[in-house]
């Protein structure tokens, strides 16, 4: 018995002298960065218990296995795989598994990281930078879809701002996935967006052997039209929109004006003048070659002349009708009122506009006003200085049509002058203080076919043209037709403005 007790004592002593088993190595994911990403995003995982052998670390995003590109005991660098899923990240090492406490967000659709510019007009292009772009990626500006999306790479798109877009978020969509920008895109709405262009009717094509331009005169319910190489004056009914021959004369009428119940025509061939009144056409008893009117307007503002004309040499001529219209013939007397613009580089370039109190003339890239002493003072633009600049007075720039074209103008009773800017296809407004703004048209569309509708989405082609103000505040414009036609090359358009 004593021997047995001694043996047990020795066993107990030996067991008591054995070392304790080692504690397991800590193994955990403490953090990862970034918290979201796309295919190819590099994610850094920090923690403990990782293997320094790349192959022994198995990292998964959901069920998708990532590529491990760097490893230490406390940090792993991995690349997000195409098979990744949103959710927990797991790391397996030698049969042990640890799981992140936070979720990783896998973005498998398009992503916007930036765009430039941050503001622009309809029709301009925005460069979008981001991720996951394909040939099927679409874009919307505050809900309005763009019809012009060009994929430059999987990280860049060029997108055209659509008509009707407004300020708001940009949304990209692809294969059922969408991404909304964090920043608003600002759509610039130009002043010309407050105008609406309506085509009223195509008008007969005038002969091509002259570049003097179509001219028109507005009355309360009709528009009268003349043109180069044509011996016929046409009348357009503003109610029915019908256009029909009105009068045929022996000369070539271009300048035309209307006051009260009378319509005046000026013959650029010989210099005769015609008056239509009481359904009867009167012809002047003599011709005056110096007064051949390339632009003809009522002269009531002068208090001296029945009407004014600008001749081939850009002189301003005062004309007095000595016999009431409606007689078999009429006597006219002419006076040279102003010669300041004579000798400008382009002949037949001056255009007149008159109301009951003022006379304006546009010539050689500049707008002038006729004073009571018959001198011209500059209102806007700079003589001979071509360009397209909205601004105050002499800082503004225009571009006219040159020889036998110029820029047609019209004026309302508030002395707002409307200029058909030949070089931009826009209508520019010069207010009574000389400030120039673009109120109809968009220069970037110059040279394209006119599209009736909102005024900032198109541009006119002022080939043979004129402009008039209406009693209702509207503008009437003759410009190239919006359809290809050899017989109706031009059209009359009406422009209205938002109140």
TrEMBL record:
CDD domains: IPT. Residues 28-106, 110-186 form the IPT/TIG domain. InterPro entries: 6-blade_b-propeller_TolB-like, Ig-like_fold, Ig_E-set, IPT_dom. PANTHER family: NHL DOMAIN-CONTAINING PROTEIN, PTHR13833. This is IPT/TIG domain-containing protein. It comes from Spirosoma profusum.
